[in-house]
Every structure is written in structure tokens, then in C-alpha cells.
Design a protein that fits this description.
The complex is a heterodimer of chains A (295) and B (362). Chain A is mainly alpha-helical and 295 residues long. Chain A contains 14 helices and two strands, in the order H-H-E-E-H-H-H-H-H-H-H-H-H-H-H-H. In chain A, strand 1 and strand 2 form a beta hairpin. Chain A is globular and about 70 Å long. Classes of the chains: A mainly alpha (295), B alpha+beta (362). At the A-B interface, helix 10 and helix 11 of A face strand 6 of B. The structure holds adenosine-5'-diphosphate (ADP) and magnesium ion (MG).
Chain lengths: 295, 362
């Protein structure tokens, strides 16, 4: 063995140095792509903009504006509500699908999972447009209903409203909910369900007393995976939401685009992050309370 | 008068019928299990014990035959509707519930007042000596404790029949021996019919009122432990239960109560005549090691040379070469000073009564 001196020796001896050097690629990427942009965003939210001139002096003027003009809080609140509904709708759609693959499919589960996720290999934008075609004035749903004679005139309320946003987002994020729920269902020991039946419970009560509680970790993970990113979505509301389906992400893009007020846009984004964090914390706290109760 | 708890009539079970992976797990099995009986299904791994238990519990459907529970056909009853409870091989305790909640699981459906449920849970938990641990989660328990909880959970709804699938196999030796006695006692106290599955012959002999020995999906023999041990009907049963010496040979003469049999080229053995034997029959004789007495070479009719010794603590197993290609295994206790009575290559006397040597059909 060679004597371990110098830099090499330091790496051989120091557990921490080795750990950091192994983490380095991820760490650098994370700092470059996440930490620095967020610091820049927070910093800019305290700057001011008048006309074309951006002033890098500390000021709370953007936050003052945020709370004074009711529109910001209103749209933020609505976005949280929309995302909440999206999360709920996604779970309702995803749970049966995950359940089906986990318990009813006996062979080729992998193929089923791939088939379920295939639609999600296409561009997000394409999928939103697909819903536009489905729900539009001359879209698939309307012409189908007219074709079988249920309605005479196209329904106008399908597109350009909150419902269209919820439907489109729920579909777009379904795969992200199906997979974690599937994993938690798949992990359930099948003999537990036999034990429940053995002790006299029918299928519905077995599900409520055994399957559902044991799959809750997957449901919670799925709800976070869907809720957090959908709050800030701006493509779907822009394409299918109309004026009533506008969300906080649209206000942010506006400020960074036509509005040309990056500091204000940053402040809105920061408020959005804070409120998401708060909602998630409250959600997880509620869950822990429910868990404590059941003991 | 004995009541029949479970009547299994010509039951067959084929898994994946019609496919190239079809497995005949049970082949026209018939047996009756009496009320209040400790009945054991004994056989090597893969012989169909679990399958039979699952058919009784209702987790699988019979391919042929029928199962009667207290004179009622149960084929159309869901597992949840059958008055039987199961202690699963790996316990299958609900991980998200405490011990007490696990035990109460089968009681809540009965819509009893909460106080009554609590009382039952407490009573059953103290029956299995787990009263103090009601608030624990299953993952905070040792294997033996989980086993007790599984037992308590299955006993709580007062089933008419308790099915136990190798409940002791995951425990270490000492605990297993303790649990044997506790289970047996529990069965006597509760008067519930136990159907106990095991591949451990010692366990079966120690606990059972009656044993069904199974192999390859068929029942080989049903009887009390002494019956099975002393009068096995075939070589499989004799071999599976306990240690045995087998001698293959041909009957050369038949008396009223003894037959003479030629083993090897010229050795003659006398054995108990169990009837239906005639000169020229090819038979297998069997002789349990503990029926043989070994002593220092003397005037005994048979002598042999010690070929091998396996020391077991309270005794030693001696393999004795009797010449003519015949070996017998026998046992001897260590002497008071702890030394073994014979050494390898000693010539010793081998005594046994002719009645201890039995004839098995080939
Ligand atoms: N679900 C099943 N599908 C196909 N074959 C099975 C199934 N369960 C058991 N078998 C087969 O049936 C036979 C009996 O199995 P089992 O009843 O579990 O035996 P034991 O409990 O005595 O070890 C074995 O050959 C086993 O491979
Ligand atoms: Mg088994």
C-alpha cells in the first residue's frame, strides 16, 4: 500500500470529505438549479420597478400591494381551492385504477402500469389541447351529445370555466397519483384481507378497516404530489379556464411578461410558496391528529 | 356421544385446472373431525395441509367432494360467514392496530356494547397471558407474543372450530415446547375443536387426540398418536413418524402369531404376524430403535459390531452392523459417570422381542 499523504490521504481518512465528494454532483446541480434561483426570487421580491427601471433597494412595496389589491389574495385563495378540488378528483379517479391493478390484475402488472402511464408520455400541452377539443363548443362531447339526440345545441358551459380546469388538471396528474397509491396497495399482505374475512367482515368493511388505512401513506403522498405543483399551474387555466378559471400562476406569468414587473411577480410567487407550505403543514398536522385519535 | 364437527367427503382440489400449470393438491380426501377434538394434519411440506385448511376456512373452493360443518353444507358460505377462525402461519396481524384492537376486530361486527367487547378482549388476552401488552403495536412484539395475539384474535369471537396453520413453526425450540402445552391446555379449557397443521411429527404426537398423516395430497392414515406410531399402515407413515429400522425381505414361514422372514442372503428374522401373510411374500419389516436393547457381548442370540455413534446428550444413537449387509439403529443411555457404554468396533449383543418387529405391506 502507498502511504496516504496529501490530498488523497485526506479523502481516505475523512468520512465527511468522502461523503461530500460522493454527493457533489447532485449537490452542485441542486444549488445551481434550486437554491440560487429561489434566493434570487426572494431577493427580487423586495426590489421595486417603476416603468422600465428596476431598483435594487429593499422595499416592502410589492407585499403591500399584494395585500391591498384584493385581486391577488382572491386569486391565490381560488388557486388553492382549485388545486384542492383537483387533488380530490385525482384521488377519486386514481384510487380505483390503482386498486384494480394491485388486486384484480393477476398477470403482467407491469404492462398494465405502462399502459396507464402511456398517455403521460405525450406533452403536457398536447394533453391540455386534447381536452380543449373534447370540451369545446364544436368539440367531441357536444357533437356526440347532439349526434345521439340528447341536446339540440352545443353546451356552452363545458369549456372556459373552473370545472374544465379541474377536469383537465385531474387527468393530467392522474399518473402521479396512481403510482404511489398502487405501491402502497401492492405492499399490503394479502393474508391480512383473508384474516379480515376470516373474522367475519365482508368486502366493504374489510376495505374500510384494513385496505384503506394501510394504503393511506400512498394516498397522502399522492395528494402532495398533485396539490403542490398544480397550485402554480398556468398553462391549463390559460387554455381551458377562460376568465373565471384564472389562477395565481397566470398572474405571475403576467408580471414577468406583459406586465413587465419582475419584482411584483417575484413577490406573488413567494406568497404562493408560503401559502402552499402552510396548507401542506396544516394538512400533515391534521393527519397526525387523526392518527393519534385512532389509537 | 361424539358429534362430528367437520366431515370431509371425498374432497379434491386442483389449482389452475385445465392449464399446463395444473396442480392436484388434494386427491379424494375423506376424514371426520369430532367436536372438542384436537385434530392434527401432519405431513411433509407440499402435501396439501394448508390447502385443506383453506378449503375449510373458505379461501379456496373444492374441485370435487364436499365439506360439512356440523352437518351443514358450507360450500356456498363466504369465509366471513363460516363459524371457523384461522390462526395464520405468519400471524397476519393488522399492523395499523394495537394488540387490543386486533383482538377486538372480529367482535365489533357483532354489534355488542363496547363494555362487553372490552371485557371479552381482556379475558382472551389474559387467556394467552398478554393482558399487559394490549396497547402495543404488532411490530413491537416478539414472535412468540405475536403468535399469542394471533391466537387471541381468532379465539375472541368464540368460533366453533379453530384452524391453526403451523402456528409454532416460526418460534425457537424452547418457546415451541412451552406453547405446545399451552395450546393443548387452551383447547381443553375452551372445548373448541382445533384443527392443527404441522410438519413436525413430535409436535403432532405430543398434542393431538388424533392425527391424519398426509402425503402427496392423500391421507395415508388416521389414528391416535400411539396408533400412528406403533401401527403405521405403510412405509411412508412409519418413516415419517419417528426413527425406524427397515428390513426388506421375503417370508419363509408363517405360524399363528409369528412369521419368519429372510433378509439379506441368509439372515432370518421373526416378526409379529399381523395376518394375511403367506410364504414367498416380499415384505418390509420395521423395528423402532427404542425397542432394541444393547448390552455387552454375551449369550444373546444376535450380536453385531458398532459401526457408528451419534451422541445426543441424554442418549446416543448406535448404528450396529449385523453382518449380511444389515444395519440396525438403536439407542443407549450414557452411564452414570457420563461415558458411553460402548465404543466403535465393539462387539455387542442386540436384543428385541419378536413382537416388536412388525410387517409392513410392501
Ligand atoms: N395458490 C396455488 N396455486 C397453485 N398451486 C398451489 C397453490 N397453493 C398451493 N399449491 C400447490 O399445492 C400443493 C399443496 O400445497 P399446500 O397445501 O400449501 O401444502 P402444505 O401446506 O402441506 O405445505 C403444493 O404442490 C403447492 O405447490
Ligand atoms: Mg402449508
Amino acid at each position: 500500500m502507498t502511504s496516504s499523504g496529501g490530498l488523497r490521504g485526506y479523502f481516505v481518512r475523512s468520512e465527511n470529505a468522502r461523503g461530500f465528494s460522493l454527493l457533489a454532483p447532485t449537490l452542485i446541480l441542486l444549488v445551481l438549479m434550486m437554491v440560487i434561483p429561489i434566493i434570487m426570487l426572494v431577493a427580487r421580491s423586495f426590489w421595486t420597478q417603476s416603468g422600465m427601471i428596476e431598483t435594487a433597494d429593499f422595499s416592502l412595496v410589492n407585499y403591500q400591494m399584494f395585500f391591498e389589491k384584493k385581486i391577488y389574495l382572491y386569486v391565490l385563495g381560488k388557486s388553492l381551492l382549485i388545486s384542492g378540488s383537483v387533488t380530490f378528483a385525482t384521488l377519486i379517479l386514481a384510487y380505483p385504477a390503482a386498486y384494480f391493478v394491485a388486486f384484480r390484475v393477476k398477470k403482467n402488472k407491469l404492462i398494465w402500469l405502462i399502459l396507464i402511464t402511456v398517455p403521460f408520455w405525450t406533452s403536457y400541452l398536447l394533453r391540455v389541447f386534447a381536452w380543449k377539443l373534447m370540451l369545446g363548443y364544436n368539440g367531441v362531447v357536444n357533437s356526440g351529445l347532439i349526434g345521439i339526440g340528447i341536446i339540440d345545441e352545443p353546451l356552452g358551459f363545458l369549456l372556459h370555466n373552473v370545472n374544465a380546469v379541474v377536469l383537465t388538471l385531474a387527468h393530467a396528474w392522474a399518473a402521479f397519483a396512481i403510482l404511489p397509491i398502487y405501491v402502497s396497495l401492492e405492499k399490503i399482505d394479502k393474508s391480512l384481507l383473508e384474516a379480515a374475512a376470516d373474522l367475519g367482515e365482508g368486502p366493504i368493511r374489510s376495505f374500510l378497516r384494513v385496505t384503506l388505512p394501510l394504503s393511506m401513506p400512498g394516498v397522502i403522498a399522492a395528494s402532495l404530489l398533485v396539490f403542490i405543483p398544480t397550485v402554480g399551474d398556468y398553462v391549463t387555466p390559460k387554455l381551458v379556464g377562460g376568465s373565471s378559471g384564472i389562477m395565481i400562476g397566470n398572474l405571475v406569468t403576467n408580471m414577468f411578461g406583459r406586465g413587465n414587473n419582475w419584482p411584483m411577480g417575484s413577490a406573488i410567487a413567494v406568497m404562493m410558496m408560503i401559502s402552499i407550505t402552510l396548507v401542506v403543514c396544516i394538512y400533515l398536522w391534521l393527519i397526525s391528529q387523526v392518527k393519534k385519535r385512532s389509537n | 356421544m361424539t358429534t362430528v364437527a367437520i366431515d370431509i367427503r371425498g374432497v379434491s382440489k386442483v389449482y389452475n385446472p385445465g392449464s399446463n400449470q395444473a396442480v392436484q393438491a388434494l386427491d379424494t380426501v375423506s376424514l371426520t373431525i369430532n367436536d372438542n377434538e384436537f385434530f392434527t394434519l401432519l405431513g411433509p411440506s407440499g402435501c396439501g395441509k394448508t390447502t385443506l385448511l383453506r378449503l375449510i376456512a373458505g379461501f379456496e373452493q373444492v374441485t370435487g367432494g364436499e365439506i360439512m360443518l356440523f352437518d351443514e353444507e358450507i360450500e356456498n358460505l363466504e369465509p366471513s360467514q363460516r363459524p371457523v377462525n384461522t390462526v395464520f402461519q405468519h400471524y397476519a396481524l393488522f399492523p395499523h392496530m394495537t394488540v387490543a384492537q386486533n383482538v377486538a376486530f372480529g367482535l365489533e361486527r357483532l354489534k355488542k356494547p363496547q363494555a362487553e367487547i372490552d371485557a371479552t378482549v381482556e379475558r382472551v388476552l389474559s387467556l394467552v397471558k398478554m393482558k399487559e401488552l394490549g396497547d402495543r403495536r404488532p411490530n413491537q412484539l416478539s414472535g412468540g407474543q405475536q403468535q399469542r395475539v394471533a391466537l387471541a384474535r381468532a379465539l375472541a369471537p368464540s368460533p366453533k372450530v379453530l384452524l391453526l396453520d403451523e402456528p409454532l413453526s416460526a418460534l425457537d425450540l424452547k418457546l415451541r415446547q412451552n406453547m405446545r402445552e399451552e395450546l393443548k391446555q387452551l383447547q381443553r379449557e375452551t372445548g373448541i375443536t382445533f384443527v392443527f397443521v404441522t410438519h413436525d411429527q413430535e409436535e403432532a404426537l405430543a398434542m393431538s387426540d388424533r392425527i391424519a398423516v398426509m402425503s402427496n395430497g392423500e391421507v395415508q392414515q388416521i389414528g391416535a398418536p400411539t396408533d400412528i406410531y406403533e401401527h403405521p399402515v405403510n412405509r411412508f407413515v412409519a418413516d415419517f413418524i419417528g426413527d425406524t429400522n427397515f428390513l426388506d425381505g421375503e417370508i419363509t414361514s408363517v405360524n399363528d402369531d409369528l412369521v419368519t422372514c429372510r433378509v439379506g442372503s441368509e439372515s432370518l428374522f421373526e416378526a409379529a404376524n399381523s395376518g394375511n401373510h403367506s410364504v414367498g411374500d416380499q415384505v418390509t419389516l420395521f423395528l423402532r430403535p427404542e425397542k432394541i436393547t444393547l448390552s455387552a457381548a454375551g449369550d444373546a442370540s444376535r450380536q453385531g459390531r458398532v459401526a457408528n455413534i451419534v451422541y445426543l446428550g441424554n442418549q446416543a444413537a448406535y448404528t450396529v452392523d449385523m453382518g449380511d449387509g444389515i444395519e440396525l439403529t438403536a439407542q443407549a443411555r450414557p452411564r452414570e459417570d457420563g461415558n458411553l457404554p460402548f465404543a466403535t468396533n465393539d462387539t455387542i449383543s442386540v436384543d428385541y422381542s419378536a413382537r416388536a418387529l412388525r410387517v409392513l405391506a410392501k
